[in-house]
Amino acid sequence: MRRADMAAGLNSCIFFFLALIFLQCFCGSRAREIADRHGMQMQQTKDSNNYIQNQLNGMLGKHEKDLAVNVFFNEEDLKLGNKIPIYFPIKGPSAKPPLLSREQADSIPFSSSKLPYLLQLFSFSKDSPQANAMADTLSHCEFKPGKGEIKFCATSLESMLDSALNVFGSKTPFKVLTTNHLKDQTTSILQNYTIQDEPKVISSSKMVACHTMSYPYAVYYCHSQESDTKLFKVLLLGENGNKVDAMAICHMDTSDWDPNHVAFCVLKSVPGRSSPVCHFFPADHLVWVASTSAL
Ligand SMILES: *[C@@H]1O[C@H](CO)[C@@H](O)[C@H](O)[C@H]1NC(C)=O
After folding, report:
1. What are the tens digits of pLDDT across the range 3-17?
2. What predicted TM-score, i.e. pTM, was given to this entire model?
3. Cα-to-centroid distance, 198 and ligand 1 (Å)
4. Atom in ligand 1 nearest the alpha carbon of residue 85
5. What is the pLDDT, as a whole number, of residue 293?
6. Can you tell me which atom of ligand 1 is nearest the CA of 20?
7. Helix spans in the chain (H)
8. Is the per-residue pLDDT at 68 higher than 60?
9. Which residue among 192, 195, 239, 242 is best mutated to probe the pocket of ligand 1, counting the most ligand atoms within 8 A of its Cβ?
10. What is the tens place of the pLDDT at every residue in 259-294?
């Protein structure tokens, strides 16, 4: 993928959730509650999959919080011809956080200890939602990785590429996969999508998923877990005719997950070994895989 294409692909929307209408009430208030509990609990949890809740914290408007969206589904839903309601967030150029070059990013401190300075730099008051989202992103990036987990935050494409190179090693070719909207889409809508092809399993000896975080500029939270995951490529057709070549992942063992994770609310399940959580990737999130894996 060319750098310019990648930058354009990377730089789109932030949101990660969609509302299943029938769950909106319950999950909406639940999500708000979670979003309101900044800081402490986030830092205590060992579950790195809580990056998702960071995005809720970054949803500033009441409407967006109420939308309390999700892209979660059960593995058995992933079948040819099946219909799944999905919200793929699309953000206009003015709402996208800017992607910095490595030089620019490296000139700005990226540390919780520098938060007061950073708030001044970006002109956010101490208790603003933006300040909370920034604090939250920094603390996520500063968690120590769990056992068997690799994690890093990247503030530029260059640093993400370098870190990915470290994970795969110089001898393993690797590539990046994203969700692609095959037709230009200008608005985000919640709609049913029909699975057009048999979902393809992408097997890769290693895999690093990178998620956008709420921050004044583009920050990616990247992680790779030893725990059992299945990566899929799924061709979807929306009711409005939009086609999406989507990436999806199933976390097969969620026994380490925070029981308060919004996914369990949406899927009406609890953490466990036989309680997978699957989700689609929004267009600006990335998955790095060994490029020997078949597509
Ligand atoms: C999706 O389809 C189901 C069943 O046909 C329907 O009940 C539901 O309202 C639809 N959801 C959306 C978001 O259109």
Report:
1. 443 333 222 222 232
2. 0.76
3. 21
4. 13
5. 52
6. 13
7. 3-10, 24-36, 40-44, 51-57, 62-67, 102-106, 115-121, 129-142, 157-168, 262-267
8. no
9. 192
10. 888 888 888 899 999 889 999 998 889 999 998 655
- Token readout for 22 is 């029938």
From atom 13 of ligand 1, which residue's Cα is the shortest distance away? Answer: 191
Contacts of 268-271 with CB under 8 Å at 24 or more apart are none
Contacts of 160 (CB under 8 A, 6+ apart): 154, 210, 220, 222, 286
**Within the chain, what is the greatest distance between any pair of CA atoms?**
52
pLDDT tens by residue, 96-152: 789 999 999 999 999 999 999 999 999 999 999 889 999 999 999 998 887 778 999
118 vs 78: CA distance, rounded Å: 43
Q: Which of 23-27, 55-59, 236-240 has the lowest mean pLDDT?
A: 23-27
Whether the per-residue pLDDT at 1 is higher than 60: the answer is no
Q: Could you give the C-alpha distances from 218 to 10, 162, 193, 265, in angstroms and in order?
A: 9, 17, 29, 28
Q: Which residue has the higher pLDDT, 184 or 288?
A: 288
Please give the number of the atom of ligand 1 that sits closest to the Cα of 191.
13
Domain positions in the chain are 3-290
Instruction: State the distance from the centre of ligand 1 to the C-alpha of 85, rounded, in angstroms.
Output: 7
First to last CA, the chain: 15
Q: Which atom of ligand 1 is nearest to the CA of 21?
A: 13
Residue 235 to residues 10, 14, 195, 196: CA-CA distances in angstroms? 20, 22, 6, 5
Instruction: Show the ligand 1 pocket: residues with CB < 6 angstroms.
Output: 83, 85, 190-192
- For ligand 1, the distance from its centroid to the CA atom of residue 192, given in whole angstroms, is 6
